Amino acid sequence: MDSFGSDFSSGAAGSGKMDPGTIMEQVKVQIAVANAQELLQRMTDKCFKKCVGKPGGSLDNSEQKCIAMCMDRYMDAWNTVSRAYNSRLQRERARI
Amino acid sequence: MDTQGVTADPQLQQFIEVESQKQRFQQLVHQMTDVCWEKCMDKPGPKLDSRTETCFVNCVERFIDTSQFILNRLEQTQRGRGSLSESMSD
User: Fold this and answer.
1) Which residue of B has its CA nearest to A20?
2) Predicted ipTM?
């Protein structure tokens, strides 16, 4: 990986931070963070809708239990959708 | 300094293409999970029962079918069948 960095960083102030390998790793991390945030945002939205009725002074026990279950079900749903979509893509590619 | 080095780097180019494609996949999964949750999920239980799971799978398939249908029909419409509203009266 270092050999790829040499062209790129020769013009930079020799800081080494500009090498493509580092950039790629940083980008991957940022993408992973963005995906996690998106997942959490949608999960929060769905589970709030399903589990919290008229908002009281705090989340009662039943609401908390519901939210916990909802989180797990949302992950199950996400994984099911991911698998189904992947299968469909592979089927489509096989047709071509 | 070779300023063209950034975009001309084939390794970086390929990386961008691969990651972009992965992201398109992820985004669609987020979107379909969202839409299909509304259609398939009643009250969240202790596990995903098989009927609900089947609903999600069907939902994904029908969503993609819908997307393809729309693209095909749009293409047909533009191939000289006049305006969109004309072809809708079929």
Assistant:
1) B12
2) 0.81
- For the segment A39-85, what is each residue's pLDDT rounded down to a tens digit? 999 999 999 999 999 999 999 999 999 999 999 999 999 999 999 99
Residue B76 inside a domain? The answer is yes
Residue of A nearest to B57 (CA): A84
Residue A72's identity, in one-letter code, is D
Asked whether residue B35 is domain-assigned, the answer is no
Instruction: Report yes or no on B15 lying in a domain.
Output: no
CA A10, CA A28: separation in Å to the nearest integer? 24
Q: Is residue B78 part of a domain?
A: yes
**Contact B30/A42, CB-based, under 8 Å?**
yes
Domains of chain B: total: 1
What residue numbers bound the domain in which B77 lies?
Answer: 52-89
What's the helix, strand, coil split of chain B in %, to 5?
75, 0, 25
